[in-house]
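Question: Send over one sample?
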Amino acid sequence: MKDGTADRAISEESVQAIDHVRGIGNIGAHMEKDIDQIIDVDPGEAQALIGLVEMLFDEWYGARARRAARLADIGLIADQKAAQKKLTALTEARSKDQMEDTGEESA
């Protein structure tokens, strides 16, 4: 976040969730006047916070890597098909040349 705004690639829901985590962290990090007041965090709440971090890592980094791999696969398929087309055209041209050399007619 920069000057109260987030990168456009980050969804509004993610920004809000991150802000909620910041708020939760501030409760523990900044003591109130009554130092005897302790706000407990139960395991389910802690797991929800960990789940958010895992989700964001997957969305921001894992999904990007999977997307790049899929796009690279498409590029590889396109390259293979282009090579196959070139090889087929070359094979057909050679076959035609051989038929002409032997006096056969092409179909």
Q: What stands out?
A: Residues 43-102 form the longest helix (60 residues). The chain has a mean pLDDT of 85. DSSP finds two helices and no strands in the chain. Residues 10 and 60 are 9 Å apart (CA to CA).
